[in-house]
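Hi R.,

Here's the chain you asked about this morning:
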Amino acid sequence: MGRLILHLCFLAGALLPVTPAPAPAAPEILLTVGTNQEYPSLNDALAAARQLSRLPGQRIVLSIAPGDYEEMLLIDVPDLTLRNAARQPDIELTDKGVGIGPGAVRITSYYGHGYDYFSQGSDHRWHADTLRQNLERGDLLPGNPTVGSTSGSFWSATVVVDTSGFEAERIIFENSFNQYISRKESRDRVRQWAEGGKGVRPGEYGNTAVQDRAYVERAAAIAFTEAADRAILDGCRVVGRQDSFFGAAGARVFVYGGVMMGAVDYLFGGMTAVFYRSELSMNVSDVDHDRSYLTAAHYPSGRGMLFYECRITSPVPGTETASRYGAKPGFFGRPWRPETSEVVFAHTRVDTSTCPGYEGRSLIEAVGWNDFLGGQSPAMYEYDTREQSGDDHAAARAPWATLLHRPELPGSVPLRPVTFTRGDDGWDPLPRLLATDSHKR
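And here is the predicted structure, written out as tokens:
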């Protein structure tokens, strides 16, 4: 009887629907980049990646040896990762911001608003042939494009992401225009416009005079177009001054840890973005009127930027910047578009200033927000701010901004990262990032 029951149970089980095991993910395609590697430059590796055949969803990884890569990149290969291949990867800056740590990978370029560059081709990027021809002529070729925020250059961005599924792990994205004179810039001919330039630029490599407030202009380190959906920066550093990090409406970007350095309106655009436990570093000069505006939001519709458990601080003087002192108090931001722009700071730690005359003061001014750019928006939200100065500036905040008293947005919407990322497809990269976090923040 026992054997009969077991046999009947086996037959019954055989008739039950069986859920197939999920298919294993296709293995990554690995391309190595660097001196003595498979590809000497990132653009060489990108060109190869564009020609590869792969399975649906299969990821291409550019494994990058530590060092400086003075290149402008157009990321148009979907599901592509830039990965720091160092045994002990870091995102350190040294020597007043000119140098990098031994385990760092830095992607950098130097175009900024207000100047013509003999090296700039019709695609707004650097080309050796264009530089050679223009130097031989002693002037720009006819029809040579100009750098500008609306010229298709995306604020002269070093890296433009124009496809979905982009990821970067422990990479420094930099525009050196307001940091130092790079090696390539020292070999270029840079000519300021008759109107709109900020003065003749130094010519020698490593000169940090361009960190002075008088030189500061629009110059992006990274830009995400409206096609750049589901992008992740994991433990990265973004370095710039004005308009450092742009995201267009339609892009979803998740920034996990890392350091975002900038000054004027430096995290800007209409992207839906989450900055999770990131350091927001006010990269300003010692000039008294040089203040940081962390955000400039421009939203026609949809969700905005969420800063969740982030820390507001300033660069290390003499190491990450040529400044002698830390930053002076600045602002959470200023709406680029009135009424509809949305920026949320939740569980934010605000450090104190070490700048003479401001010692011990919170790095965010008491008013919090500024309306000098595009007007006022009530969707400038703040919840559970922790000012290390010991001050409570809630009563002094701009009256048109909104202080939240519960972790909810209007309409009883939970104040969580997935509220911003989920879109129509339920995208939630945070669990995976938490599970695979192997670096220090």
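One quick note: Residues 2-15 form the longest helix (14 residues).

Cheers,
M.
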